[in-house]
Amino acid sequence: MPVSSPTNRTRRRDLILLGVAVVVAVILAAVLAIRHVGIDDAVTPSRSDVGSAAAPPPPVAAAPQPSIGPLGDLARRNPDDPLAQGSVTAPIVLIEFADLRCPFCAEFSRQTEPVLVERYVDTGLLRIEWRDMAIFGPQSTDAARAARAAAAQGRFWPFIQTVYAAAPPKGHPDLTAAALHDFARQAGVPDLNRFDADAAATRYDAAIHADLVQAQGLGIPSTPAFSINGHPVLGAQPTDTFTTLIDDLAAGKNVTP
Known about the structure:
The protein is α+β, with helices and mostly antiparallel strands. 52% of the residues lie in helices and 9% in strands. The protein has helices at 6-43, 47-54, 103-121, 138-151, 156-165, 177-186, 192-200, 205-217, 239-250, and strands at 84-85, 92-98, 126-132, 225-228, 231-234. A five-stranded mixed sheet has the order 1-3-2-4-5.
């Protein structure tokens, strides 16, 4: 058997070492590639993440809060109140103190209230709540009872609008039981016999009196009188007096008397 020369043994050793080096290099490269992918996945944010961090959604501006005037918040916001119209969540509430025999209340009903209903009540900005202020004699109380009798059948606002539509420009109308019955018929009250019985009863007197006491406690001298978020308006003022005040309150302006 021939003996390997030193030169051949050296050459084989070099080839073995070279092979080992190549294998190690391949393994190292594979490990580094795997680590690189893992690091990129863990650290590099996705496209959507980058966009969210760079441009967060703008904050939603809070709606201005209408101010409360010197009369305070008088709104009852009773969802079952038939003597009110408009959403219970409306930011502005107009309280109307009125007498059905008051000619200036009739003027407000004919000229201003329809504008307020169309512009503000129907859009959810304004709620109107009625308060009885029966100050022109026994017929005023009779009319207040009749209006609440109409309200018991869901016809309060049509009833008072019908009464005010027929009111004389001056003086106080003669609101007899027969006249009130006829107004109820015109306003579409369905059960007139029930209306007559309710209007003649005294079941509503405590509520009518409570409204009057509230008005007197506020120092209201006559009708019509209004509180718009606690800001007083006395008398049948021009329509733009009401719309300007409501617009200012809706805009969050500081309203002064």
